[in-house]
Design a protein that fits this description.
The chain has 208 residues and is of the alpha+beta class. The chain is built from four helices and seven strands, in the order αβββαβαβαββ. Strand 1 and strand 2 form a beta hairpin.
Length: 208
C-alpha cells in the first residue's frame, strides 16, 4: 500500500512539474509571437520610411532633370494581373503626362539613362542616411549613353547640383561635349600613341 501511495505522490509531483513546464513554454511562445509581430511591424515601418525617403530624393532629382514633367516611385508591391491582390516585386513606376505607373524598363535607352541618374542620386542619399556616414564619392560609367543633346545638358546640370553638396563625381565618357559644358573641374584623358596608352591630365577650372 505504501509503495502505491509513494508512486501516486511521485506521479502527482511529476505531473505538476510538467504542467508548470508546459505553462512556462506557452508563456515563452506567446512572448516570442508578440516579439515577432513587433519585429514585423518594425521591418514594415523601416521599409516604408526608407521607401518614402528614397522617393522624396528621387522626386527632387527628377524635378531638376525633367523640370517637373516626370515623376517616379519605387514600389515593393504590384497588383496582380487578375486585379485580385498584390505580389511582392520591386520596381520603379514612372508617371509622364497622361502615362501613369509605367515600369521603367518600358522606356527607351536614352530615357532610362536620365531616369537612372535620379535613381542613383536617391540611393546615394539613402545610403548616407541609413549608414550615418558621408557617402561622398560617385563613379559613373558612360551615364550619357543614348542621350540626345538636351538630355545630356540636363544630366550635366543634375551632376553639377550633386557636386555642390560637396560630393566628388568621377565620370567615364567618350563625349567631348560633356567636357565643354563646365560640369567638371578636371579631365583625365587616355591617349594612345605608338601602340602605347598614357594618361594626360587637364585642369578645366580656368576654362569656364
Amino acid at each position: 500500500h505504501r509503495e502505491h501511495v509513494t508512486r501516486y505522490e511521485d506521479l502527482r509531483t511529476t505531473t505538476a512539474e510538467q504542467d508548470q513546464l508546459n505553462s512556462d513554454r506557452a508563456e515563452l511562445l506567446a512572448n516570442l509571437k508578440v516579439n515577432e509581430r513587433l519585429l514585423d511591424r518594425f521591418k514594415a515601418w523601416k521599409i516604408s520610411t526608407s521607401r518614402t525617403a528614397f522617393n522624396n530624393s528621387m522626386a527632387k532629382y527628377l524635378s531638376l532633370l525633367t523640370d517637373g514633367e516626370i515623376t517616379a516611385e519605387l514600389v515593393t508591391e504590384k497588383p496582380l494581373a487578375s486585379g485580385k491582390g498584390v505580389k511582392q516585386e520591386i520596381d520603379i513606376l514612372v508617371t509622364d503626362g497622361e502615362k501613369s505607373g509605367v515600369p521603367i524598363k518600358q522606356y527607351s535607352g536614352g530615357e532610362q539613362a536620365g531616369l537612372s541618374l535620379s535613381i542613383t542620386g536617391a540611393f546615394w542619399d539613402l545610403a548616407s542616411t541609413q549608414t550615418g556616414c558621408s557617402v561622398n564619392l560617385l563613379l559613373l560609367d558612360e551615364p550619357f549613353n543614348d542621350m540626345d543633346a538636351y538630355g545630356e545638358e540636363k544630366a550635366c546640370a543634375l551632376l553639377k547640383h550633386m557636386r555642390e553638396s560637396g560630393r566628388t563625381i568621377m565620370v567615364v565618357t567618350n563625349r567631348q561635349s560633356v567636357r565643354e559644358r563646365g560640369t567638371f573641374d578636371s579631365e583625365v584623358r587616355a591617349v594612345k600613341e605608338n601602340h602605347k596608352t598614357h594618361l594626360e591630365f587637364y585642369d578645366l577650372r580656368g576654362e569656364h
